[in-house]
Amino acid sequence: GESVGLHLPTLSVQEGDNSIINCAYSNSASDYFIWYKQESGKGPQFIIDIRSNMDKRQGQRVTVLLNKTVKHLSLQIAATQPGDSAVYFCAEIVNAGNMLTFGGGTRLMVKP
Amino acid sequence: GAVVSQHPSRVICKSGTSVKIECRSLDFQATTMFWYRQFPKQSLMLMATSNEGSKATYEQGVEKDKFLINHASLTLSTLTVTSAHPEDSSFYICSAVRSGLGTQYFGPGTRLTVT
User: Fold this and answer.
1) Residues on chain A bordering chain B, Cβ-to-Cβ distance under 8 angstroms
2) How far apart are CA A84 and CA A66, in angstroms?
3) Under 8 Å between Cβ of A4 and A103
């Protein structure tokens, strides 16, 4: 992912709608991807992960899609709730290592 | 399981003083811990990788003499910000890698304010 400096992109959705948060990565050697949720003043919280040999993985209300051809990752949240309001980061790991490289983040705001 | 704690959660100190932040894995052993810094409205930036029983590996641009890291046991790593200045004010977050699994678990963060 790329840092977006001091201005996080913001996605505003209506409660109950589906949300799609996107992330672009640049390292073709990345083989493991994770989405994190970070609420204000707290550490990142694991949401869902996907390995590079997959193109889709589903969790509870969340789906991650991976398109390796264009190096794109997305997080879909179904029936978005006010509690989903947070900043979402994608992170990648290269060659089965331990080090995470974080993307710039997207702020999700859910309107009641 | 897999809980990581940080202490303190918030600290205010005067310029020129040193501050120690602790990161503990509460219910698992962590051979590797990471320290990140996060400025407002920005992403997490890796500062250093802390390995139990050995010297930390610092990322480019991070001063190892200013940010002292000690990983004395499999459940504790400490970050000491020496001679802190206002520009060191930030949110410091640690993560711990569960031995054998590779998954990173994050602490709740420490808000450092240097006046």
Assistant:
1) 1, 3, 5-8, 36, 41-46, 89, 96, 98-105
2) 21
3) no
Which residue's entry shows tokens 């006046």?
A: B115
Do residues B82 and B65 lie in contact, with contact meaning Cβ atoms separated by under 8 Å?
yes
Contacts of A43 in chain B (CB under 8 A): 4, 6, 93, 95, 106-109
Largest distance between two CA atoms of chain A: 42
Cα-to-chain-centroid distance, residue A63: 10
Min Cα–Cα distance to chain A from B45, Å: 8
- Name the burial class of residue A110, with classes exposed (0-12), middle (13-18) and buried (19+) by CB atoms within 10 angstroms of its CB: buried
Q: Please give the backbone phi and psi of residue A106, each rounded to the nearest 5 degrees, phi first.
A: -135, 130
Count of A-B CB contacts under 8 Å:
55
Report how far apart the first and last C-alpha atoms of chain A are (Å, whole number).
30
- Which tokens belong to A89? 């980061």
**pLDDT exceeds cutoff 60 at A8:** yes
- What residues have CB less than 8 Å from A15, skipping those under 6 apart? A80, A81, A82, A110, A111, A112
Judge whether residue A5 has pLDDT over 80. Answer: no
- Distance CA(A12)–CA(A110), nearest Å, equals 6
Give the tens place of pLDDT for each residue, A37-66.
999 999 999 999 999 999 999 999 999 999
For the stretch B58-91, what's the b/e string if a residue is b when 16 or more beta carbons lie within 10 angstroms of its beta carbon?
beeebeeeebbbebeebbbbbbebeebeeebbbb
CB within 8 Å: B106 and A36: yes
